[in-house]
Write a structure and sequence with these properties.
It contains 3 helices and 2 strands. The protein is mainly α and 96 residues long.
Length: 96
């Protein structure tokens, strides 16, 4: 969670994780041009709606939804079994 500074820092770190590893950032910058933060990764950005300076009725709901979303992604990731025979992938997200 954070503004532009935290999103930039965490975004860089998250982009080196393999495709498929759950990545979610709640940020005030998610409503604008997010290319600098996401790049060619599968990083998910969620708009915080309000400034993240504490918990209020709006941020409580948004952060709860974000926690549920990343929990669902983690549950799916843990039980994932490929169904398409491991077909090769081409492009930057496949490197590594």
């Amino acid at each position: 969670m954070g503004g532009s500074g935290a999103t930039s820092l965490v975004g860089l770190a998250s982009r080196v994780l393999p495709v498929g590893v759950p990545k979610l950032i709640v940020s005030t910058v998610a409503s604008g041009n997010t290319r600098a933060y996401v790049g060619t990764s599968d990083l998910t950005l969620m708009y915080s709606v309000v400034d993240i300076a504490g918990i209020n009725s709006v941020s409580e709901r948004v952060l709860g939804n974000a926690a549920a979303a990343v929990a669902g992604m983690a549950r799916h990731y843990a039980g994932f079994e490929p169904r398409f025979g491991g077909k090769p992938c081409v492009g930057p997200p496949c490197s590594g």
